[in-house]
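Field reference: sequence -> structure
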Amino acid sequence: MLGLDISSSSVKLVELSRDKAGNLVLDHCAIEPLERGWITDGNVEKFDEVAEAVRRVVKKSGTRTKNVVMALPASAVITKKIILPGGLSEQELEIQVEAEANQYIPFSLDEVSLDFCVLGPSATSAGDVEVLIAASRKEKVNDRQGLAEAAGLKPVVVDVESYASRLATARLIENLPNKGLDTMVALFEVGALTTSMQVIKNDEVLYERDQAFGGAQLTQLIVRQYGFSPEEAESKKRSGDLPDDYGVSVLKPFVDSMAQEIGRALQFFFTSTPHNKVDHVMLAGGSSALPGLTDAVTQQTSFACMVANPFEGMTLSGNIRETKMKREAASYLTSCGLALRRFFQ
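Structure field:
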């Protein structure tokens, strides 16, 4: 299955497999930029243009696989953990979930796509199980499905973006000392317009929050400083083809203000929870690999900071251009998590 992540600024595709020894192999990956306004707040505003971009990214990647896993932003999905009696059949569970879902979902059940998954025995009541319900408006699911079908793909799973990025991050946390046990990681995914933060410990999410800050602000600074059009500025930002004073006049102030935003978000977490530190800060998304950012974050917060490379420890197939992939790796966190669903069905 392909992992296909459609964000406000680009479409990202990842395909993984396993070799005979069971190690993960990165078979294909590709990114195709989207113009601003084609996707807004997770909604598809320009269907044909985005579908065409999906076709291009599939072609660019060289994959022949048709099955695809996609995701909706967390803001488009209502999730709720509930406790149900243990030992129910699949059918009985379904009836119970639908009855419970009515309490939490502000739409009629005819208008939503609903699914659930048994997480395991309840920690609080013996003999019961903890069940996760997820629901989204049908039209949002149909939009994602339609984009895949328009590009000749077969949608198999619709996931939640934050769950997919956590799945990919879990592999990286396992590589930390003591296999990441009891380690508190603050994951910041820096998108074009928003940065989402999740604090994770032992696969549990302790806290999550989105803030309106992202890489598009750097593009705006480039436009203001040099008088380029927004499209020109975006493409020069990606290629690094910028005037000599860019590093000092534009990049450094932006990196510093981004580190401050991350510091502020962490302070917010500390004041609204019993916690007062994290063990690691991980950065992902297109702007996370900006020169000097990890150092600026460590300086600002005093916590160790690293860029999340979701392909760390994977074997690369002959189709992968390593230098390009390494430069863009942090952008692929969600799409890599979606591709991993192939092994976690």
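Note: The chain has a mean pLDDT of 94.
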